C-alpha cells in the first residue's frame, strides 16, 4: 500500500469503498459545462457539446434558438465566475490558501488550458470540483473523461495529478438552498391562490431534472446494485427530493413528483419520462391549482433552467391556469458555497474535516468511482478519479 501524499500516485490511499485518504493539494479546479458568449459562438459551442453523439442538425438549430433569444449568451459562464469568486471569498474567510482555477468541458476557458495554466503556475496536484451533483455519464464520467483526455492532450499525464470531489446531490450544502426555496415557493403559490379566493386549493411540488437516455440511467453508479426507480440517477433524485421535503414542514401532506426536461437525441431512443410539460398537463384534471417547480438536477440558473423551465414550463402553467413558482438553484447561496468548501476540506490534510455529511442513505458518495461506474456506452476513454483510471498511474 502506498502512503497518501507520497508523490504522484493518484490512486494512493483509496479504500475498497472508494474513499480517498486526505492529501495535500496545490489548487482547486472548478469544472463546468461552459456556454457561448455571443451569437457567433452558438453553433461552434453546440458542435462541441454534441461531438460524436449523433444529435440531428434540426435539434441543434432548435437549441440554438434558445441561446439566440438570450443574445447568444448562456448565463452559465457569469454564474461560474460568480461561484469562483464566492469560493475564493469563503476559502479566504477560513484562512485556506488554495487558488481556484476554472475550466469548462465545452467552451473557453477549456479544461486542457486550465491544466496547462495550473502546471505552469507550479501546481502538481489539483482537486476538481464540478458543477454537477448526481451520478450518470453526463454528470460524472464525462467530466472524468474530459480531465483524462485533457491530461493526455497536454502531455501532462503523469505530471499533474487530478482528483475529484464526490458527487454531492445529498450534501446538506446542496439540499438546504432547495429547502429554503421550496418553503418560499409554497408560500408564494399559496398566497397567489388565496388572492384568487382559493386559499385551500391543492398544490403540487414538481422536482425537475435533466432527462437522460434510459440506457445511461441504467449504467449510472456502481455495477450490480439495485436502485429505487431502476437506476442510481433516479434513486439519487428521489432520495434528495425526500430529504428536501423532510426539512420543509409546510410541505407536509403535499403531493409531489419527479419529472424530466431537456430531452434531446433521436426519437426512437427511450429517455427518462415524464416530460415536465406532459406532467403539468395532468395536474388540473386532478384538481390541482398551483405548482412549485424545483430544479433539483441543477446547480445554477443556466439555460436549461431559464429556457426549459422559466420559458417553456411556466408558459405551460399559464396556459393551464396553474399558479406557479420556480424555485432558485443553489447558485452562490452561502450554504452551498460553504458546503463545497467543506467537501474540499474532507479531502485535504490541512483544514481536514473528518465528518462527511449526507442527507440520504445513498451517501456520502465515493471520492473515486467503482470500475465501469456511469459507463460510457460508446466506448472507453482515459479517465481520472476511478478505480479503473489509468491516466498518470503508471498503468497507462
Ligand atoms: C444530466 C445532464 C445535465 C446535468 C448535469 C450537469 O450540469 O452537467 C446537463 C446539463 C447541461 N446541459 C447543457 C446544455 C446542453 N446539453 C445538451 C445535451 C445533453 N445533455 C445531457 C445531459 C445533461 N446535461 C444529455 C444526455 C444530452 C444529450 C447527449 C449529449 O449531447 O451529451 C446539449 C445539446 C443540444 C441538446 O439539447 O440536444 C446542450 C446545449 C448545459 C449548459 C446550459 C447553458 O448553456 O447555460 C448544462 C449545464
Ligand atoms: Fe445537457
Automatic annotation (TrEMBL):
GO terms for cellular component: cytoplasm. It holds the Pfam family Ferrochelatase. It catalyses: Fe-coproporphyrin III + 2 H(+) = coproporphyrin III + Fe(2+). Keywords: Cytoplasm, Heme biosynthesis, Iron, Lyase, Metal-binding, Porphyrin biosynthesis. Involved in coproporphyrin-dependent heme b biosynthesis. Catalyzes the insertion of ferrous iron into coproporphyrin III to form Fe-coproporphyrin III. Belongs to the ferrochelatase family. This is Coproporphyrin III ferrochelatase. It comes from Arthrobacter crystallopoietes BAB-32.
Amino acid at each position: 500500500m502506498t502512503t497518501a501524499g507520497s508523490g504522484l500516485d493518484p490512486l494512493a490511499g483509496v479504500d475498497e469503498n472508494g474513499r480517498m485518504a486526505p492529501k495535500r493539494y496545490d489548487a482547486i479546479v472548478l469544472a463546468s459545462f461552459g456556454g457561448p458568449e455571443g451569437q457567433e459562438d452558438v453553433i461552434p459551442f453546440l458542435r462541441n457539446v454534441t461531438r460524436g453523439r449523433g444529435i440531428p442538425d434540426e435539434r441543434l438549430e432548435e437549441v440554438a434558438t434558445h441561446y439566440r433569444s438570450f443574445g447568444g449568451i448562456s448565463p452559465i459562464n457569469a454564474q461560474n465566475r460568480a461561484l469562483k469568486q464566492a469560493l475564493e471569498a469563503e476559502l479566504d474567510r477560513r484562512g485556506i490558501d488554495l487558488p481556484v482555477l476554472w475550466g469548462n468541458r465545452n467552451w473557453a476557458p477549456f479544461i486542457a488550458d486550465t491544466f496547462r495554466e495550473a502546471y505552469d503556475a507550479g501546481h502538481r496536484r489539483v482537486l476538481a470540483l464540478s458543477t454537477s451533483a448526481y451520478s450518470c455519464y453526463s454528470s460524472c464520467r464525462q467530466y472524468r473523461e474530459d480531465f483524462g483526455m485533457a491530461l493526455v492532450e497536454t502531455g501532462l499525464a503523469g505530471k499533474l495529478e487530478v482528483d475529484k470531489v464526490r458527487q454531492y446531490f445529498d450534501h446538506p450544502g446542496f439540499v438546504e438552498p432547495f429547502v429554503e426555496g421550496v418553503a418560499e415557493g409554497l408560500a408564494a403559490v399559496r398566497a397567489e391562490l388565496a388572492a384568487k379566493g382559493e386559499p385551500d386549493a391543492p398544490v403540487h411540488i414538481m422536482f425537475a431534472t435533466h432527462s437522460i437516455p434510459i440506457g445511461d440511467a441504467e449504467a449510472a453508479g456502481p455495477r450490480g446494485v439495485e436502485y429505487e426507480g431502476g437506476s442510481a440517477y433516479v434513486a439519487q433524485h428521489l432520495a434528495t427530493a425526500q430529504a428536501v421535503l423532510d426539512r420543509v414542514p409546510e410541505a407536509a401532506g403535499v403531493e409531489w413528483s419527479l419529472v424530466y426536461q431537456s430531452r434531446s437525441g433521436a426519437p426512437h431512443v427511450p429517455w427518462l419520462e415524464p416530460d415536465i410539460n406532459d406532467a403539468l398537463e395532468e395536474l388540473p384534471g386532478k384538481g390541482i391549482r398551483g405548482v412549485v417547480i424545483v430544479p433539483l438536477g441543477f446547480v445554477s440558473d443556466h439555460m436549461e433552467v431559464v429556457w426549459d423551465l422559466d420559458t417553456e414550463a411556466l408558459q405551460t402553467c399559464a396556459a393551464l391556469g396553474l399558479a406557479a413558482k420556480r424555485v432558485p438553484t443553489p447558485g452562490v447561496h452561502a450554504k452551498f458555497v460553504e458546503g463545497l468548501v467543506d467537501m474540499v476540506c474532507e479531502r485535504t490534510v490541512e483544514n481536514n474535516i473528518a465528518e462527511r455529511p449526507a442527507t440520504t442513505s445513498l451517501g456520502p458518495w465515493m471520492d473515486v468511482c467503482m470500475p465501469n461506474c456511469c459507463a460510457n456506452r460508446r466506448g472507453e476513454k482515459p479517465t481520472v478519479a476511478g478505480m479503473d483510471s489509468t491516466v498518470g498511474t503508471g498503468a497507462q
